[in-house]
């Protein structure tokens, strides 16, 4: 099923939906644009590891202004695990309760009263995603859980082509190998990009995850050693 057919099918059941939106990622940028004409209200949910990053806010503000949508910001489900384990020097609390994306989805639905949730998952994201999505109606709609995945059958190149054709804001490319969308604090590409273009954001990251500074230092040291050989 095409993204547009998937969206239209859900829109026959409801006019108020949730979209889990990564702010800077190509899937979220394209999907919000596809969905906007078909629903009266789209509640975008941004999950953060570090709140109030400048480069993330730029994208959220762009989406709010262009589409007149509301953003709800909530902690990413990975953050409690980081706190529980003391990842990268974050203040540790071994008693922190962890949870998953489904729990966040349930919480947002209860808070907003919206019944359907949209995600940017694709079959091309990996084997587990492909096997999951192929069990749904049209490979994209789960009537049981009331979740929709319109981009299921699209590839990255299709999404980038859509963004270019519709003159949308370009997603951030943190690095050649990076797939980060602003939450991968252990991704060196993301950290180096932030260091170069948004040093204030890097400072916020280091304030919460102090060992990030050491991670960057060790990487740059190893790179210099390679160049000297």
Describe, in short, the structure shown:
The chain is an alpha/beta fold. It has helices at 3-11, 26-35, 54-67, 78-85, 101-112, 127-133, 156-165, 188-197, 199-208, 211-228, and strands at 16-20, 41-48, 70-75, 116-118, 141-142, 147-148. Helix 3 (54-67) links the parallel strand 2 (41-48) and strand 3 (70-75).
Give the overall silhouette. globular
Uncertain runs are none
**Helix proportion range:** 40-55%
CATH architecture: 3-Layer(aba) Sandwich
Radius of gyration: 19 Å
Notes on the structure:
With 229 residues, this protein is of the alpha/beta class. It has one domain (3-173): 3-Layer(aba) Sandwich (Rossmann fold). Helix content is 47%, strand content 11%. It contains ten helices and six strands; from the N terminus they run αβαβαβααβαββαααα. The protein has a six-stranded mixed β-sheet with strand order 3-2-1-4-6-5, sandwiched between helices. Strand 5 and strand 6 (147-148) form a beta hairpin. Helix 2 (26-35) crosses helix 7 (156-165).
List the helices and strands and how they pair.
Layout: H1 3-11, E1 16-20, H2 26-35, E2 41-48, H3 54-67, E3 70-75, H4 78-85, H5 101-112, E4 116-118, H6 127-133, E5 141-142, E6 147-148, H7 156-165, H8 188-197, H9 199-208, H10 211-228
Parallel strand pairs: 1-2, 1-4, 2-3, 4-6
Antiparallel strand pairs: 5-6
Give me some keywords for this one.
229 residues; globular; single chain; alpha/beta; 10 helices; six-stranded mixed sheet; Rossmann fold
């Amino acid at each position: 099923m095409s993204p547009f057919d998937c969206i239209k099918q859900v829109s026959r059941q409801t006019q108020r939906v949730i979209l889990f939106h990564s702010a800077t990622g190509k899937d979220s940028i394209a999907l919000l644009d596809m969905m906007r004409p078909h629903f009266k209200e789209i509640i975008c949910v941004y999950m953060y590891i570090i709140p109030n990053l400048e480069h993330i806010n730029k994208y959220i503000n762009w989406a709010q202004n262009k589409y007149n949508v509301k953003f709800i910001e909530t902690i990413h489900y990975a953050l409690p695990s980081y706190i529980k384990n003391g990842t990268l020097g974050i203040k540790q609390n071994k008693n922190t309760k962890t949870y998953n994306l489904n729990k966040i989805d349930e919480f947002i639905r209860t808070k907003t009263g919206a019944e359907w949730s949209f995600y940017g998952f694709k079959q091309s994201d990996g084997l587990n995603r492909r096997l999951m999505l192929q069990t749904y109606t049209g490979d994209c709609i789960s009537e049981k859980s009331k979740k929709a995945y319109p981009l299921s059958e699209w590839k990255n190149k299709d999404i980038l082509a859509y963004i270019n054709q519709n003159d949308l804001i370009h997603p951030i490319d943190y690095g050649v190998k990076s797939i980060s969308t602003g939450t991968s604090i252990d991704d060196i590409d993301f950290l180096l990009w932030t260091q170069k273009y948004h040093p204030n954001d890097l400072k916020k990251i280091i304030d919460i995850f102090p060992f990030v500074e050491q991670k960057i230092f060790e990487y740059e040291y190893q790179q210099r050693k390679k160049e000297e050989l």
